[in-house]
Amino acid sequence: MENRTTPENIVKLKENEIFVFGSNLSGRHGKGAAKQALTWGARWGQARGLQGYTYGIPTKNESITKTLSIDEIRPFVDEFIDFAKANGNLIFLVTEIGTGLANHKKENIAPLFKQA
């Protein structure tokens, strides 16, 4: 598999690119990468999965008051990896999910994507 790094500041997507962002379980995309995802089709009220040219991975609870634990995030990442493997024609630009508003450390989130 080819190693790729997602650009830090994504302002445009190509037709086959999907912007992967951290969301909350209520699907309120009000800040950070989730707010940017609205630009490319993220749906208000949809917490996870494909949404236009975006894909949400929950990292916060429904009320956005609690960060999900690594173990709570893991199933959503696994679901994403399965989706990505089934859609090899797409390029997934994975933002540093869980490291902004959810406040996880990169070194704790990155291993979740090892199978990607």
Please give a structural write-up.
This protein has a 4-stranded mixed beta sheet with strand order 2-3-1-4. The protein has 116 residues and is of the alpha/beta class. The chain contains 3 helices and 4 strands, in the order βαββαβα. It has helices at residues 32-37, 70-86, 106-109, and strands at 17-24, 49-51, 54-60, 91-94. The model has no long low-confidence stretch (mean pLDDT 93).
Please give the structural blueprint.
Blueprint: E1 17-24, H1 32-37, E2 49-51, E3 54-60, H2 70-86, E4 91-94, H3 106-109
Parallel strand pairs: 1-3, 1-4
Antiparallel strand pairs: 2-3
Structural class: alpha/beta
Strand/helix succession: EHEEHEH
Helical content (DSSP H or I, runs of 4+): 10-25%
Low-confidence stretches: none
> Average pLDDT value?
93
Task: State the end-to-end CA separation.
Answer: 9 Å
Give a count of the beta strands, DSSP E runs of length 2 or more: 4
Count of DSSP-assigned helices: 3
**How would you characterize the largest beta sheet?**
4 strands, mixed
Radius of gyration: 13 Å
User: How much beta, percentage-wise?
Assistant: 15-25%
